[in-house]
Design goal:
- The chain is an alpha/beta fold.
- It folds into two domains: 3-74, no CATH class; 148-488, Aldolase class I (TIM Barrel, Alpha-Beta Barrel), CATH 3.20.20.70.
- It is 39% helix and 11% strand.
- An eight-stranded parallel β-sheet has the order 4-13-12-11-10-7-6-5. The protein has a three-stranded antiparallel β-sheet with strand order 1-14-15, with no helix packed on it.
- Strand 2 and strand 3 form a beta hairpin.
- The protein is globular and about 100 Å long.
- The chain starts with a helix and ends in a 25-residue tail after the last helix.
- Residues 155-473 form the Glutamate synthase domain.
- One of its GO terms (biological process) is glutamate biosynthetic process.
- InterPro entries: Aldolase_TIM, GltB, Glu_synthdom.
- It comes from Shewanella amazonensis (strain ATCC BAA-1098 / SB2B).
Length: 548
């Protein structure tokens, strides 16, 4: 018998007996409170000992609930009282504080030096210039739209990444969109479709179309060209993005149970309410590289010539090069490619997929940038980086590794007031952002929070342009991968561009690639995405001085 079991029987016998005797001989508030306590303890303990399915409750009756109570707010205890400013994941206190400060336009400087270990393995840094300069105004926006695009779009260097209505509350969606309107940047709808809340304030939209084809489908799940045309031709929709995979759960579909499908969600997504809504892992219109490009051309035509691209998390590099081969063979190019990082967030995902699948954003962006150079198509296709972006350095590093613009999601949520409670998948978001509870959702003040989103965007870009000028560069286009220095285990800085061999213009298309690039290129086929991953990757330090 455990100590707590012995305590229970002591309380049930001696404790109750003593309490009853006191109530009989010395009646009073204290006696009755003692009796209520001992009887309550006895009843709860009896349930724990004889009926509970939990071994902890059976072995430690009553007191086991103390553990459950502490565990229920363990994250908050760790966040507020235990963790240092730089050790939390995914966003530490330093990063969260920076977002909060910039969203409120208050002082964002620090005193007494850095808290980071500047000599830590893989620490990223920059080299400054003794000749700082001002960044040119005409370099602060990027034109999207290739040769077949008749309605190009000029985008900000920083924008709102994909977050669906349904994942976020109506007020959160409205605040994000109004912030985008005020700040002159775009708002990605996420794959949940275009809702009234996306349209109410007139902010620029990128309409994301995932494997569920929400907003442009029949009730049976087939693509509906006319439904797509109606939405895509809205003046607020500036670009269309096909989602092949998502960084937080690449290679994984999703199910929206019918119990969660409200009449509003059904109307927006064009789905029935009498059965579960399934988003397959494979996009039904993009089963092969050539099918993907054909779908891109179809959407571009139906939308009246707006920029169309696709989003993916990079996995097997040869499978991305399969799309490259299809581009060369068909002559069809996307207007942009959004590279989602494996460090990306989501409301709900299997732990194994979130922790172990896909390339991180910097690696993925650098690979896609190089691949497009090797294909001879870099000037035709824009790259959007979608990954963890809290600071101006996060933005700069993605642009240096090859991106043209950057999308941010979770830090835009932080600007709305998110506290990283990680309850996004429970519908009990404490700030009313990631929930469909109407009472909680009303806590988001659309006007106030839209200003926070606008401020975070403006102040982060301001810091980015100061950082860029401090490097002696007057345009983001002059950034190069080798300008990002990565600290090696040997204590010396290494250029981030040494991760994979840089390609020259047309090197892949002309058959001049060597090493891993040659192996990936030979394995790729324009008729199928799948490539068997049997290539042995060699650590970079063992390849120095050798070709490839």
């Amino acid at each position: 018998m455990t100590l707590m079991q012995k305590l229970y029987w002591l309380m049930a016998t001696v404790g109750n007996g003593l309490a009853i005797w006191l109530c009989s001989h010395h009646p009073g508030l204290g006696s009755w409170l003692l009796l209520a306590f001992t009887l309550g303890y006895t009843l709860i303990g009896a349930y724990d000992l004889f009926l509970s399915r939990h071994s902890l409750n059976r072995l430690y009756p009553v007191v086991a609930y103390i553990r459950y109570g502490l565990e229920s707010f363990r994250v908050e205890i760790q966040q507020y009282f235990i963790a240092s400013d730089t050790e939390e994941k995914p966003f530490n206190r330093e990063e969260r504080s920076l977002v909060y400060q910039r969203s409120k336009s208050v002082r964002d400087t620090i005193a007494f030096g850095t808290q980071r270990d500047l000599l830590a393995d893989n620490y990223l840094s920059l080299w400054h210039s003794l000749s700082p300069c001002e960044v040119k105004e005409d370099s602060k926006r990027v034109r999207f739209g290739g040769d077949e695009c008749v309605k190009p779009y000029s985008a900000s260097r920083l924008n709102i990444s994909a977050m669906s209505f349904g994942s976020l509350s109506s007020n959160a969606i409205q605040a994000l969109n109004l912030g985008a309107k005020k700040g002159g940047f775009y708002h990605n709808t996420g794959e949940g479709g275009i809702s009234d809340h996306h349209l109410e304030h007139g902010g620029d939209l990128v309409w994301q179309i995932g494997s569920g084809l929400f907003g442009c489908r029949t009730h049976e799940g087939a693509f509906d060209p006319e439904a797509f045309r109606r939405q895509a031709c809205l003046p607020q929709v500036k670009m269309i993005e096909i989602k092949l995979s998502q960084g937080a759960k690449p290679g994984h579909g999703g199910v929206l149970p019918k119990a969660k499908i409200t009449e509003e969600i059904a109307r927006i997504r064009l789905i029935p309410t009498d059965r579960d809504c399934v988003s397959p892992a494979v996009h039904p219109m993009c089963a092969t590289p050539k099918a993907l490009l054909g779908f891109i051309r179809e959407l571009r035509t139906l939308s009246g010539g707006k920029p169309v691209g696709f989003k993916l998390c990079i996995g097997n590099p040869a499978e991305f090069l399969a799309i490259g081969k299809a581009m060369l063979e068909t002559g069809i190019y996307p207007d942009f490619i959004t590279v989602d990082g494996a460090e990306g967030g989501t409301g709900a995902a299997p732990v194994e997929f979130t922790n172990r699948m896909g390339m991180v954003c910097l690696e993925g962006v650098y690979f896609v940038h190089n691949a497009l150079i090797g294909l001879g198509l870099r000037d035709k296709v824009r790259i959007i980086a979608s990954g963890k972006t809290a600071s101006a350095f996060d933005l700069l590093s993605k642009l240096a590794l090859g991106a043209d613009t950057v999308n941010a999601a979770r830090t835009m949520m932080l600007a709305l007031g998110c506290i990283q409670s990680r309850h996004c998948n429970t519908n009990n978001c404490p700030t009313g952002i990631a929930t469909q509870d109407p009472v909680r959702g009303k806590a988001v003040d659309v006007e106030v929070k839209s200003d926070r989103v606008k401020n975070f965007h403006h102040n982060t870009l301001h810091a980015f342009y100061e950082l860029l000028g401090g490097m002696g560069l007057d345009s983001p286009a002059k950034l190069l991968p080798q300008m990002i220095k990565r600290r090696t285990p040997y204590g010396l800085p290494m250029s981030a561009s040494s991760m994979v061999k840089q390609l020259s213009h047309g090197e892949l298309a002309e058959g001049r690639a060597t090493g891993v690039w040659q192996s990936w290129w030979q394995g790729a086929s324009s008729d199928s995405f799948f490539v068997y991953d049997d290539l042995i990757l060699t650590p970079i330090e063992l390849r120095q001085g050798h070709p490839g």
